Amino acid sequence: MKPDYKNWMPKGMVLGSAIGAGVSILLLIVFGCTPLLSSGGVKTVLTIVFAVLSLLMVVMTIWMFLMYRAFSYNGKRQMSRQIIEGLAQHVHIPDGGVGLDVGCGSGALTIACAKRNPNASMVGIDRWGKEYASFNQALCEKNAKAEGVKNTSFKQGNAVKLEYDDGVFDVVTSNYVYHNIPSSDRQKILLETLRTLKKGGSFVIHDIMSQGKYGDMEAFAGKLRALGYEKVELLDTTQGLFMTPFEAMWMGLSGSKILIGKK
Question: Is 228 in the same domain as 157?
Answer without folding.
Answer: yes
